Structures are given as structure tokens and as C-alpha cells.
Amino acid sequence: MRRYHTTFWGCQMNEADTQRVAAELERLGYVYTDEAEQADVVVLNTCVVRQSAEDKVYGKLGALKPVKTARPDMVISVMGCLVGQGTKQADALRKAYPMVDVFMSPSETRPLVDFLQARDMDRLAQEVDLSALATRYQAQDEELALPTHERGRIQANVPVMYGCDHVCTFCIIPARRGRERSRSADDIVREVRSLVGQGVKEVMLLGQIVDRFGYDSGDHAGLSSLLRRLNAVDGLERIRFLTSHPSYMTDELLETVAEAPKVMEHINVPVQAGHDVTLQRMKRGYTTDDYRRLVERIRRTVPNVAIHTDIIVGFAGETDEHFQGTVDLLRELKLDKAHLAMYSPRPGTVSAKIMADDVPPTEKARRLHLLDELQHTVVADINARYLGQSVQVLVEGRHKGKWRGRTRNDKLVFFEDATRDWTGRLVDVEVTWTGPWSMQARLPQPMTVEREVIPLVAG
Ligand code: SF4
Prior knowledge:
The structure is a single chain. This protein is of the alpha/beta class. Helices cover about 40% and strands about 20% of the residues. It folds into four domains: about 5-140, Rossmann fold (3-Layer(aba) Sandwich); about 150-265, Transcription Regulator spoIIAA, CATH 3.30.750.210; about 265-385, 2-Layer Sandwich (Transcription Regulator spoIIAA); about 390-450, CATH 2.40.50.140. Strands 2-1-3-4-5 form a five-stranded parallel sheet, sandwiched between helices. Residues about 135-140 and about 450-459 have low confidence and may be disordered. Iron/sulfur cluster binds near residues 164, 166, 167, 174 and 245.
């Protein structure tokens, strides 16, 4: 039995790409193992958004080096943003890490499959029924199989587009993931149907600027039509999408979110900073007032919506006054979640090249902490409004003896019940306690199951 191992760092896009590689390795007859050191094929899917993520890759490669020396047959593949799109980065890595057999750009899986197929042809001929293998390969484009160790998931990430045409000055993604390109809507719908057939109830559509889905072929309503098509997929319960850019959140898209019952009232739209000078230096293409109007428009169009945002603190040139703008904006808009990060210049970005990283680390940490405390209070207040209310959750599984699920607008809810397996079911629960990060709830008496969903099928 040949074994493979995958590790990924970073975003949901990397998670989805890793799943795809795993599925392809399983088609070749490989079986998953948790232990990289025991594997015949190891895939490391990398992230360079922060230095710490990059360092973890180098650490993992260092740990694998003696194993590869002892077992030269082991295949090591490195993919993702560390490798990037062009040959320049890969060539440098090839020199630094000759032990790596295959380098792959983000979202690419073919080079590893080709490498293994070429290398393993004799073995495959003996161990695998080649006609069955050929059939599986034909089905490959039509059907995405979840890797075995991922079966039973009720939520799956589905990349709908790759790359980004923007040039936010702090961001390395366009350099590493290339130009924006949308997948075909037909392929996405087929893939989602296939995932639903494997037990998935909820999909997260992924793109660097997902609200630009279809723009590269001139279709400015691409995401709206895709959402409406997916809304009609039988057996699919919930659809979410991220990450949106404030400049492309059209009325049509918001109306689709409001009207299509399977599209959740949950919008992730990063503001990044709350002062126009910083936004301009980041080259984000909108002002704080544009963002205020957007939040107002989202809330007016989509009742009960939760809005999530991303914020970078301590960006190059961010003064106390600029930072205060971010504090004021968050206090005013009261958003449901803010993903906070300290600015860290990434080599190759515009800001790293031409702007001084002039906010000291201790000050960045202070700003981060201050926003964190503020959000803590804001979200605790928002969530307290749910106390005593009935909310519908899709149950994801067990956590510390309780059932864990999410509301339509992405609030995390726990409840207790020993009578049945609730995994994958939609259920109405009554909120009994709220905090900033989660809620506790109980099943109402008499209990109502909103909709029975067939338990997940493995295999
Ligand atoms: S929109 Fe800006 S932050 Fe987002 S991926 Fe593109 S360049 Fe990076």
C-alpha cells in the first residue's frame, strides 16, 4: 500500500487545492496517512502572506530532509504561493531544495499527477486495473471526489476563480497567483452536485475577489447567476462566498443574496483600514465613506445579514490619527467579525519596495489588541440580541460533548442532545446564552427538525 500525506498553510483556497490534490492521489491508488515521515508522497501547500507561514514550510522541509535521504523514493512536492506562477521563484527554490521532486503553482495539480504516473507506470500496471483507472480519469473533470479522510464533511470549499488583477500595495497574491481567471459556471455546478452526492450540505465559493466572478469574460452578473443556479441544486442546503471586494458588491448581487433561500445572509467584505490616507496608500480603490454606504446598502437589502471584515493594523505610514479612523469606523459600523492582522511587509510587494515599515512592532501589537477588545464588546452586544430567540443551525458535528452548528449568518452555536446524530441536519434551537464568539442553545420542546437530511454516507 502506497501512502500520501498533505499539509497546507493559509487560506481556504489552499485548503480546497489540497483537497483536490488528495483526491487525485487517491485516484492513483494512494492512501492517506497523518504522518508525513511515513508517506511515499508528501505535498506541502504553502502560504507566503506572513513570514511565519513561510517559515513553517522551511521547517517542515528541514524535518523531511533526513527522511528523504534515507528513502530517496519518497516524492516531495511543494505547491502554492511560495512557488508562485512564473519560473523565477520555482528556479530559486529548486536550487535551495534539490530534495523536492515537483514544484507546482497555486491550484495546479497536474505536474505531480504526471510525475507519479510516469514514474509509477509499471507498478500501476501490476496493482491497478488500468481500464478502471482510465474510467476514473475520464470522470475526473466531471466529478470531484472528496479524499477519503475528508468524507463525512458537510461543508466544502469550492474555488470558483483564481488570481487577482488588483495591486493592493501590501499584497503578494497577484504576484504569486497570477491574473484573474474564472472557472466555467457549468463545471462549478457539476462539481457542487458531485460534492452534494458525497454528503456535502454547504459550499463556500472562493475567489480572491469573488464578486468579480465572470468579469474576465465580460459578465458582470456572473456571481449572481452562479448563486441562482446553485440555489436550484437538490440536496444542497447552504451557499456562502468569500472574499468580496467593496467595489464590486452590486445591487443585483445583494438582491440575489436576499432572494435565494440557500444563499446565506453573510458577507465578507474587507475594509483593511479606516482612514482614507491609508486606503489610498494601500491602493484599495474606495474611501471610508464608500465603505459606510456599502454597509448601509448591504443591511438595507439583506435583512439579518452578518458583515465580516478584514483589518490590517500598523500599515506603512499609519499614524495615530489614521489608526483612530479605524477605531472610529469599527465602533460606528458594529460589524459581526473583524479578522485582524499586523502589517508585515512581504518581499516583492509595492509597499515593501517603496514604503518604510515605520510602525514599531510593539505599537502594531497595541493597535491590534485595542481593536480586538473593541470588537469583543461590539460582537458581544450584537450576539446578546439573540438571547431567547429561535435560530436555525446546520449541525457540523460534535465538539467537547456538544453539537456544533452555525446559523444562517454564521454564528457559532452549541447545544446538547443525546437522542440522535444531528450531523448534517438543519435544526431550530433556542438560544440560552450568548458570548462574543459563540452561543449556547437548547432544543425546543416539542423539538422541531426543520428538515430531515439523510445522514452522511462515507465511502
Ligand atoms: S484585492 Fe488586493 S488584497 Fe485582495 S487578493 Fe487582490 S491584491 Fe490582494
